[in-house]
Amino acid sequence: MSVREREIYDVVGVGFGPSNLSLAIALQEYGPSGDEISSMFFERQASFGWHRNMLLPSATMQISFLKDLVTFRNPASTFSFVSFLHASGRLARFVNNQDFFPTRQEFHQYLEWAQARLADRIAYGSEVTSIRLPGEGQGPQDRLLLEVAGASGAPARVVEARNVVISTGLAPSMPVGTERDERVWHSSEFLEKYRQVDPGELRRVAVAGAGQSAAEIARFLYDDLPHAEVYAIIPSYGYSVADDTPFANQVFDPGAVDDYYFGNELTREAFWRYHRNTNYSVVDDDVIRELYRRSYDDEVRGVNRLQFLNLTRVTGTKRVSGETRVSLQGGPDAVVRELAFDALVCATGYDAMEPAGLLGEVDRLCLRDEAGRYRVERDYRIVTDPALRCGVYIQGGTEHTHGLTSSLLSNIAVRSGEIAGSIAARRAATSRGETSR
Ligand SMILES: Cc1cc2nc3c(=O)[nH]c(=O)nc-3n(C[C@H](O)[C@H](O)[C@H](O)COP(=O)(O)OP(=O)(O)OC[C@H]3O[C@@H](n4cnc5c(N)ncnc54)[C@H](O)[C@@H]3O)c2cc1C
């Protein structure tokens, strides 16, 4: 066998967004030197990218810069946002801004700076296509094989992992009956598609959705296309504000994960019932006000460039002689009508991470609850059949067990520390000859 076929790591990460980037740092900073936890991370994008297609010029973070990759776990880490500012020579000027919320463009620079310091552990342009068992009928399995596809034509790379950490992110969701095409885009592909079109061809554009991305795109299109009419297609009566007041914000504290995880069904339901509006289908106050101001100023000037179609949903699209015809159901009588646009952006959200397809045959060893959801330990490890001793951890897809921070950045520093600690503890138990479960 060649050396490449026998690559074995303590940890293999699938996907390299902020979650696994935070984990890579936590592993590096974990425990005594000389007892390194070996790791390798695979990312299908050609280089690091965090929601690149939504890096709109004025878009800001929805969390404090102190909720970076490391600070809540290790405030002394050299991978903090403050360390990045210091290294970039911008610390004093950033502080003069007196603002907790940097732009997403600046946060992206921070993430790029951090990942560049871990380059030896990351393979870009590398998609994990399957995870499988090394062999059946050979007793408990303490490793998994991951098949990784690289550049087209190159043979697949196969690596062995004692622990796998899946962090493949959210899956874009389109309205029912709507397919993407050259002029129907999901917000996750927005800037890339937008830049491919001559702005002069975009005279009438629409944005569907009532969340932060929808409002940001509507504002961007209004400003960037001064000749165009912009339609905001909103299922509610108007944008609702994101509650980021201090008491509500506590749902994103690290301690809230314990309250959720060890809570009963009633307490968990209370988190969702009372605090959905901290994150889901809501918009930051300043963005709402800026949009309203634009529409009001238009009215004063006697123009009508920004239109809000309230209580309205997209029910289908078709392309007819160069036009995108969009079926809309809405208004007080819920009638269906058709409007033509030069482009439609569906900022209609995402589905939770679902790793079953990637896990393939391994998935049948991952235990589920009565509702068919993964059973997940407090340390983010999926509960597995005793025949599987290899740890399968997930970052994302744990809303039902760990609560609202599951797909967000708020808790990634602490979560990564917990996962790194769990992996180290299990490894120590194994080397003492104990069965780690
Ligand atoms: C526009 C936008 C703005 C946001 N802003 C905030 C914010 O301000 N605050 C906040 O808390 N949350 C925010 N979020 C939520 C978002 O989920 C987190 O910011 C963050 O992206 C979660 O990181 P992640 O690493 O778990 O997932 P992702 O960032 O989605 O990264 C997953 C990575 O896995 C890769 N991948 C997928 N499948 C494979 C595979 N089979 N093999 C290899 N690689 C694979 C993908 O290419 C991707 O790079 C925002 C979301 C969006 C869409």
How many distinct beta strands? Answer: 17
**Poorly predicted sequence stretches spanning 5 or more consecutive residues:** none
Secondary-structure element string: EHEHHHEEEEEEHEHEHHHHEEEEEEHEHH
Helix content: 25-40%
Q: Which radius of gyration do the C-alpha atoms yield? A: 23 Å
Structural class: alpha/beta
Structure report:
- The protein is α/β, with parallel strands linked by helices.
- It has 13 helices and 17 strands.
- It has helices spanning 18-29, 81-88, 91-96, 104-116, 190-195, 212-224, 246-249, 254-261, 265-275, 285-301, 356-359, 399-402, 412-431, and strands at 7-14, 39-42, 122-123, 127-132, 144-149, 157-166, 171-172, 184-186, 204-208, 229-233, 306-309, 312-320, 323-330, 335-341, 343-346, 350-351, 391-394.
- Strands 1, 2, 3, 4, 5, 6 and 17 form a seven-stranded mixed sheet that branches.
- Strand 13 (323-330) and strand 14 (335-341) form a beta hairpin.
- Helix 1 packs across helix 13 (412-431) and helix 6 runs parallel beside helix 10 (285-301).
- The chain starts with 6 loop residues before the first strand and ends in a 6-residue tail after the last helix.
- The model has no long low-confidence stretch (mean pLDDT 94).
- Flavin-adenine dinucleotide binds at residues 14-20, 42-45, 50-51, 54, 61-63, 127-128, 167-170, 213, 358, 395-396, 407-410.
